[in-house]
Specification:
Strand order of the largest sheet: 2-1-6-5-4-3
Structural class: alpha+beta
Oligomer: single chain
Radius of gyration: 22 Å
Number of helices: 5
Shape: globular
Helix content: 40-55%
Number of strands: 6
Strand content: 25-35%
């Protein structure tokens, strides 16, 4: 092999190596941007990060849902009502996916779960946009406390403020506002009865 051929081969391999490294960095950065958008409730920032539809899956609970981008934006508006805090506890690229350990708390979670929920998630991509997010493990989640507090709230609302019924299923901004109102009414009544 002559010197020019060897030089061209090294140049091509170098460019290919840099291109692959940049793709890896891009996926990790996209995932970090996604969690930053969630943390800041920056709905306008989500558009360039997602494919036209997003598959969400929860392995432990055998549940999945596909959102159109418009539907996911509506969910983000619901989520934003509760003033969420998302923290990346660990994140790494694993071939074409990103694996992350995420802590989330908000006003709803603080009431129902009484501490942040920590999950492990796998993010998959299509053409450098997020196409699916799979929650593979609940690291910190006390199902019995969550369900007990949720059921207590729902039963109390049903008896005392039936006009708010259905908020638990309404994952829109107005549904989130009703959810917050239900929590606030419950807290006011129960905190004043403790005095």
């Amino acid at each position: 092999m002559n010197k020019i051929s060897a030089l061209l081969l090294c140049l091509v391999l170098g460019i290919y190596s840099c291109k692959n490294t940049n793709q890896n960095i891009d996926k990790l950065e996209i995932a970090k941007q996604y969690y930053d958008v969630l943390d800041k409730s920056d709905i306008s920032g989500i558009d360039t990060l997602l494919t036209d539809s997003l598959l969400t899956r929860e392995t432990e609970y055998d549940y999945e849902q596909t959102f159109s981008k418009t539907e996911y934006v509506e969910w983000l508006k619901w989520d934003a009502v509760f003033n969420p805090t998302y923290k990346i506890l660990d994140i790494e690229q694993d071939n074409e996916t990103v694996k992350a350990k995420i802590s989330k708390t908000d006003q709803r979670i603080a009431f129902l779960h009484q501490e942040p929920i920590v999950t492990e998630q796998v993010i998959r991509f299509k053409k450098n946009r997020i196409s699916s997010i799979e929650t593979t493990k609940y690291v910190v989640f006390n199902d019995s406390i969550f369900v007990k507090n949720r059921d207590t709230l729902l039963n109390w609302i049903d008896k005392n403020h039936p006009e708010l019924n259905g908020f638990i299923y309404d994952q829109t901004k107005s549904g989130g506002m009703k959810y917050l109102e239900a929590i606030a009414l419950y807290k006011v009544t129960h905190n004043s009865s403790k005095k």
